[in-house]
Amino acid sequence: MNIGTTSDGPLLTELLKVMEFSNTWSKEKRLMVGRLCLLSVCVHGLHHGSRIPLSSAKRVLDPVTFEKYMWGRVAFSCLVDSVKVVDYEKDSYTIHGFIHAMLIWVYESVPGLG
Q: Which residue of 46, 49, 81, 93 has the fewest CB atoms within a 10 Å radius of its CB?
């Protein structure tokens, strides 16, 4: 995929570039790229300029293990860890992880928002 040497997985922007020329690849390899996109966007909730953790990215190599892995727990851990380090004195901050879980909690907890 021409990503280079790094201790982390690919960026979402790199994966999107790969999708442009991967239509000649086998179905299994294209599914791996799709799973990496899922990890970046849905599980880890990363900015397009942030790399997927290598430990997660390696799991796309075995599709059966990938499907059975507890991604909900990983996403929730990412979310909790990013909330723990938020500096509330700043004007804005970024939260990583399965942000939809946080939004559901906010909508259910704060009357008038939902």
A: 49
Q: What is the pLDDT of residues 16-28, one digit of tens each?
A: 899 889 889 999 9
Provide the domain count of the chain.
Answer: 1
> Side chain identity at 72, as an amino acid letter?
G
Q: Is residue 37 part of a domain?
A: yes
* Alpha carbons 98 and 33: distance in angstroms, whole number: 20
Asked whether the beta carbons of 54 and 8 are under 8 A apart, the reply is yes
Q: Which domain holds residue 77?
A: 12-109
Whole-angstrom Cα distance, residue 96 to residue 94?
7
Query: Rounded to two decimals, what is the model's pTM?
Result: 0.70
Which residue type is seen at 49? G
